[in-house]
Amino acid sequence: MLPVDTGGKIRSYNILRQLIRAHEVTFLSSYSGDPDPAYEADIARELPGARTIRTVSPQPGTLGQYLGYFGGIFRAAPFAVSSFADTAVRQQVTMWLNEKRFDVAVCDFLMPTINFPLALATPTVLFQHNVESSLWKRRASTESNPVRRIAYKLEAVKMDRYEQREVCRFHSIIAVSEHDRRQMLEMGASDITVVPTGVDTQKYQISPPATDNPPRFVFTGSMDWEPNIDAVNYFCRAILPAVRQELPDSLFQIVGRNPPARVKRLACDYVQVTGTVASVSDYLRDATVVVVPLRAGAGTRLKIFEAMAMGKAVISTSIGAEGLDVHDGSDIILADEPIAFANAIVRLTRDAALRRQYELAAAKSASRYDWSNITGVFVDALQRMCAKA
Prior knowledge:
The protein is α/β, with parallel strands linked by helices. The protein is built from 15 helices and 12 strands. The chain has 2 domains: 7-198 and 371-388, Rossmann fold, CATH 3.40.50.2000; 216-369, Rossmann fold (3-Layer(aba) Sandwich), CATH 3.40.50.2000.
């Protein structure tokens, strides 16, 4: 959960912080690696009453994780799920659910479902931030490395089978968009509530129009996430050259934690790779245009609402804005072809009045999605679940 540095963490953290203001909440957090008293203290301070369990799972990016992946090729469960399996976590969850000490339980993300018992004695909701099988299929379709492409295809097949079973097993599902809801209905799930993406409107406040000298195009997101890696590589390869022909003094900023070598190699006089920054909002504030050239991915799309809340003109692919309550040609521009994407950037950069129209419309749209409003929808879904029990 901490640090709050990914879309899923941001979503869960903000909803939890709103929930504990009016409800009694017990948060179970598991983490791998060495004992981390500082992390456990931070969790206890941020979310009073939280319970933490250190697991034996290998940490991401380590030799143990890679060996675990190859060792699990012949297992039925996808690696992204089986790597979350832990006896201590499963025992704790099973005990709590069997004791019926809570009105309702929430499994946050699909992966931890492997630690939930088959028989759910307490009303239990699965909070689906993504349709995971769709994500892996898209990653496979856009991956150029043949070894990774094969691995992603295998993971997609396993994830498809696993996800279909799990969305039907839990008593209720919370989805993040109507698009995701339709996909899970096709899997056989029946009780699905959409709780849309939110934004912290106090943190991401509308900012004055940015200068366009030099023009700055900003992408934000965790750079250890494969769809984001693909997005910035695609942008630099297929879109930015056409933009630079028209705007030779422009700067592209890639803002996000843990950029791998594939991203760091993009850095040059007109491409800046920041790595972890103290405040993403500082970069958004100075952006002429915010770009979201995603070709894969699913889920929260927080980066778009954060930019819109700050009054920024956003250009995105359809996949990048999928599931959001946005309107092409009004509060956002959607462009799926490289030349259309490049032309939109050039047009908004050169036409400050047009850009301002998009900025004002974006801020107005995002203002309706403060986390306090979103959490109200979340609570309503949980209360309906309790009423059915």
